[in-house]
Amino acid sequence: MKLGETINYKSASLFKNKNFLMYWLSYVFSALGDAIYFFVIPWMIKEITGSGVMMGMFLLVVGVPRIILMLFGGVVVDRFDGRKIMFISDISRAMVMLGIFILMVTNSMNIFFIFALGFVFGVLDAFYWPAVTAIRQRVVSKEYYVRSNSLLAATWQITALIGPLTGAFLYHIDKGIICVFVIGIAFIASALTLYFVKLRPIMKEKESREQKNSIKEDLAFGVKYVLQNHLVFTLIITMLFANMSFRMLEVGLPFLAESLKANEKEFGLMQSALGAGGLVVSFILTFIIMIKNPSPKANMLAISFQGLGLLLLGLTTNYWQAIAAMSFIGIATAVVSTIGPSIFQKTIPEEVMGRVSSINMIVAQGAVPLAQAAGGWFLDTTGPNTLFITAGIVETLTGLVALMLPAVYLYNKREKSHTKEVI
After folding, report:
1. Of the candidates 421, 14, 398, the residue with the CA atom closest to the CA atom of residue 228
2. What residues contact residue 352 under an 8 Å CB cut-off, 6+ apart?
3. What kind and span of H or E run contains 359?
4. Where are the domains of the chain?
């Protein structure tokens, strides 16, 4: 497992690159665990409390520690082995879920433990997600960034399709006990496959060893890079407003399902429609069309269409309309999930990827917990339909406004000057 071992990163097929294959398998297990988790926990909160405010407060408890610690998490990822950080996070998440399983089996479970679960996951996410983003750049060569991101997006879509259906089936049996156990096992499997992932050495690694900066200097450098790279700055600010809108799904979807007289199985189908909608697009971008030069314009258009999908979801009056709207949102999400990370990987130097990824997540998601808490109040006051209509309008306008910004519409002309602008 030596860092300097020779690995075939430029294999014609991604799956012939054993290193990427192990990374992908780890992603499969982790994404499946997340997909079941994001079905069972919101549904449990809805059944226990029936309150949109409580749903928003839970998401606030998850989001606040994640945002506070994430910038530090990015520095840790750039200084240490991101693979080991992911391994520790996966094992920790598995232990927490198995602890929740024991509480449920012994009938000791209550809303307090659900909130505690959310807090722990928020802390772990602060280190896990910067590591996921940073090491992805080091398992394939540059020409495979888009294809690998397309494959990972397709994987997410498949797990988003299978996970809620699996969760709904298992939840119907015993009110979530088996679901929680399966989530824990999925995270353990993710950790075990990470053991076989080997990372390509970072360029300038020797220089970094010789000139150790303080944590404060590392943080300042990451912030400086983002502020001076106009494209990265624009993408991050755009994602701030897009995420605040898109993440209203976590707040309002269980209550929209309830207003449409949907049971837990039908709610699972609504969530699965998100994955189904993007699956075909992700498959095309992975195996048929290879985008060599991902464009910020396409990313902004996809964000606008994602917002339009939220608007349509808010206008639904029956279950099948909601399924169609969620599928439409999934299509746009697949494009955003492919093009956005590819632009980042192409633009940002490897040695600062962890810090920039953390800044991206902090800014792009920083207001999300507060927005979700406010969304819970808005939901209880106006209902889920109005919540989604409002969120859809905000996200649609965000993408359209971003299209008119110089960093986006002049991207092709300035692409070379943006690469390593600060380094």
Report:
1. 421
2. 78, 221, 222, 225, 423
3. helix 353-366
4. 15-200+214-417
CATH level 3 topology of 15-200+214-417: Growth Hormone; Chain: A; (1.20.1250)
278 contacts 153 by C-beta, under 8 angstroms = yes
Q: Which two tokens stand for residue 337?
A: 């999930």
Q: What angle do CA 49, 324, 51 make, to 5 degrees?
A: 10
Residue 350 banded pLDDT, cuts 50, 70, 90: low
Give the model confidence (pLDDT) of 369-416 as tens digits: 778 888 888 888 899 999 999 999 999 999 999 888 887 777 766 555
| Tokens at 354, concatenated | 């962890």
88, amino acid identity: I
| Phi (first) and psi of residue 176, to 5 degrees | 105, -5
Residue 116 CA: distances (Å) to CA of 66, 72, 218, 271, 400:
14, 22, 31, 25, 39
Contact 77, 127 (CB under 8 A): yes
CA 298, CA 289: separation in Å to the nearest integer? 15
Whether pTM exceeds 0.85? no
Q: Count of residues for the chain?
A: 423
